[in-house]
Design goal:
This protein has 229 residues and is α/β, with parallel strands linked by helices. It has one domain (8-223): Nucleoside phosphorylase domain (Rossmann fold, 3-Layer(aba) Sandwich). It contains 7 helices and 8 strands; from the N terminus they run βαβαβββαβαβαβαα. It has helices at residues 15-19, 39-53, 94-101, 121-131, 142-151, 186-195, 200-228, and strands at residues 8-12, 30-34, 58-66, 76-84, 87-88, 106-113, 136-139, 156-164. Strands 3-7-6-4-8 form a 5-stranded mixed β-barrel, surrounded by 4 helices. Helix 2 runs parallel beside helix 5.
């Protein structure tokens, strides 16, 4: 007998983001899973998960880099528009996005999905100028999740927590630490950091920030889903 469709599917990219949902009380029939990082893994992972669980709605959750200078670390952003280099993805479900945006401490934003990590503040500034959207943030999965859900007639919304501000530079070697599928290679990050030991404190701070943003985001998504299913 086939399993009943999930009431909701929450997807993240990184295992660290998914771990923030561990032990949280979610309504029955609400599932959490990781698609993997980067557009390719996100597209394949989201498609497979949607086909397997046939959710009534999909919530994409994760961290993002700010493109707008007034966005602060930890702010919760709700998808108003999702796009990538190919153009706009199918729009988020208006009812879901409106319900999420009405919750305290949130802002609607445009999410641009990049096929690489933007590590320099100058890159983020240049992308913000091209988009001409306020506020806006950059990630590596939102458009892939959006297209996978929309292709199956599944309403979706993406919510993200700001990990790094528009004026922050990240270690430059992170832009080169990818595997063949354009996901982050932890082994390459570690190898690169060993050659640049002065960057290790920055990497540890970034890891803590991912964890803190993940916890904040998971609490928000759990409350949002409880109102939406």
């Amino acid at each position: 007998m086939a399993a009943s469709p999930a009431r909701a599917l929450i997807v993240t990219a990184m295992a660290e983001e998914l771990a923030a949902f561990a032990g949280r009380a979610l309504p029955p029939g609400v599932l959490t899973a990781s698609t993997g990082e980067g557009p390719k893994k996100a597209a394949l992972g989201a498609a497979a998960l949607c086909d397997l669980h046939r959710p009534a709605l999909l919530v994409g959750a994760g961290v993002a880099g700010a493109l707008s200078p007034d966005l602060a670390v930890g702010e919760i952003l709700v998808s108003r528009r999702v796009l990538d280099a190919a153009g706009d993805a199918p729009p988020p479900d208006a009812a879901l996005a409106g319900r999420a945006a009405a919750m305290p401490g949130t802002r609607e934003a445009a999410f641009f999905t990049s096929d690489r990590m933007l590590v320099a503040a100058s890159e983020k500034t240049a992308l913000a100028a091209r988009l001409n959207e306020e506020p806006a943030a950059v990630d590596m999965e939102s458009a892939a999740w959006a297209r996978a859900a929309a292709a199956r007639g599944i309403p979706y919304v993406v919510v993200r927590a700001v990990h790094d501000t528009a004026t922050e530079d990240l270690p430059d070697y992170l832009a080169r630490c990818f595997d063949a599928e354009r996901g982050i290679s932890r082994a390459r990050v570690i190898f690169s950091a060993l050659g640049r030991p002065g960057s290790v404190p920055r990497l540890l701070a970034m890891r803590r920030r991912v964890r803190e943003c993940g916890e904040r985001l998971a609490a928000f998504v759990a409350a949002f889903v409880a109102k939406s299913v």
